Every structure is written in C-alpha cells, then in structure tokens.
C-alpha cells in the first residue's frame, strides 16, 4: 500500500501526472524516516523538518502535519513493516509548465515504505570515502528533491569503490552526499554548524545530544580538508547509515585505519535510543 495525499491504495493504482512539478522541476521536499521493530524513529523531528523545508520554498502542506504523521504511521501498519524506511515527498502539484508558482495548484503528497536491514557491516567495520568539491546551491538546509549534485557525488564515490563522498567548499568540509560529517580530535567532536550550507540532520541532533550527555565537548565549527585527513577519528551520520565510522578517505587512512573508540561509544548510546524507541508503541 502507498499513500497518495489522504488515500491509501495499491502502488499500481497510484497515478502521478507527467506535469507534476516535482517530476519536471524537482519542485518539492522529502523525508526518509527509519522504522525499527515496527516503530517510527524520530518521527516528530522528521515531520517538523518536512514542514520547515516546505515553508522555506513557500509550499503549502496538503493537510495538517499531525494528520500526515498519523497517516505515515498507518502506512507502516498497513504494510506490516518491521524494519525499513518510509519515504515521503510533497511536490507543488500539477500545473501547466511555467517556472514561477502556478496560480492555483494543490500540493501532492506521496509516501511508501521499503523493507531494509540495518547497515551492520558498514557500521561495524567502517567505510571508505572520497573527497569531492561541494557543487550544490546555497540552500542545502532545505531537504529538496533536487539531488543531482548529491547523486553525482555518490556515483563518483561508487566508481572509486567507496560508500560516501565527503564534500568541501574550497578547503572547508561541509557534509557527505547523504550524511553529516564529524571529526574527533582529542575527545572533542567537531562538525559543521547548522546554516544554509548543510542539512540539519535528525541523526545529527540526536548524536550531538548523546555526545553532550556523555560528557564530550561538541564544537559546531567547520573544519578543513587537512584537519579531516589528519584527525584521530571520522564518522558520518544519517537515517540510513546511522553512526558509521570512516576509516579511509581517498588514499589516507584515518587514525589507525580502524573504527575509533569515541565512535563506538556513540554507536552504543544509539542502540539504547533505538531500544527505548521500540519500547514506545
Ligand atoms: N539523507 N545531509 C544530507 C545531504 C542528506 O541527504 C542527509 C540524509 C543527511 C542526514 O540527515 P538525517 O540524519 O536526517 O537522515 C545529511 C537521506 C537519508 C537520504 O536522502 O536518503
């Protein structure tokens, strides 16, 4: 079953118009929400960010946020999903093709679920990443459907046998193609500050909270490519990759080339969060 606006239906019965502005312009926003043991993880954070992204592109939600959250939970139930994702997107809707906002148009919400195992191998052993210039626009805070630069960066990573592309604007590291990036230097956690140049990751919010709760100093300041390559530990976070060590970047081993102890500490704390979340049902 999928969700189209307020209606639940079979995927084959859902129709998306060829003039949907999401399809033609990437004129829309999205979220990817994790489901662990049948329970949505950080649902409130995700729907609030969906609302904020919509607001930033002057896109009216098709119906109230509380109803959207309720329908997404129902979608999980109707599909009997235990572990995986909800993908939800809202586009500006269907109208004859003009660049500016069309006069009367109703936004279109589409959501579906997908089974997915947790990324255990990657989070256990760590991943390799490449470095690439961040060629995106200056509103990376909006979780918009326009992902072409991210797609190209990830493809480049894949071509090099890597799992992530860490992007930088000049010498400043911004974020991964689909993750936030952190370095650990003498037990201090550094990560890019929240502004228009990165996405305010929901996993990032949780990880920084856990870091502070565990007595670590968190510095939300940008770091350079050199600092990234010379640091003790690097890890990335996202809904899909959770908290994942980065053990090699281009040809440089990070630390001793093994997942770091601080990263391991956060991974353990993250397990508690998931277990706690699964208890709320
Ligand atoms: N991507 N930065 C970018 C550019 C992202 O696309 C994502 C998430 C993140 C991490 O955000 P969060 O912790 O809220 O997942 C940071 C999702 C997973 C995706 O597009 O598949």
Walk me through the structure.
The chain is globular, with a radius of gyration of 19 Å. Strand 10 and strand 11 (about 190) form a beta hairpin. Helix content is about 30%, strand content about 30%. It is an alpha+beta fold and about 280 residues long. The mean pLDDT is about 95. The strands form two sheets. Strands 7, 8, 9, 10, 11, 12, 13, 14 and 15 form a nine-stranded mixed β-sheet that branches. Strands 2-1-6-5-3-4 form a six-stranded antiparallel β-sheet. It has helices spanning about 20-25, 45-55, 65-80, 120-125, 150-160, 200-215, 225-230, 260-280, and strands spanning about 1-5, 5-10, 30-35, 40, 85-90, 110-115, 125-135, 165-170, 170-175, 180-185, 190, 215-220, 235-240, 240-250, 250-255. It has two domains: about 1-115, 2-Layer Sandwich (D-amino Acid Aminotransferase, Chain A, domain 1), CATH 3.30.470.10; about 120-275, D-amino Acid Aminotransferase, subunit A, domain 2 (D-amino Acid Aminotransferase, Chain A, domain 2, Alpha-Beta Barrel). N-(5'-phosphopyridoxyl)-D-alanine binds near residues 179, 180, 202 and 238.
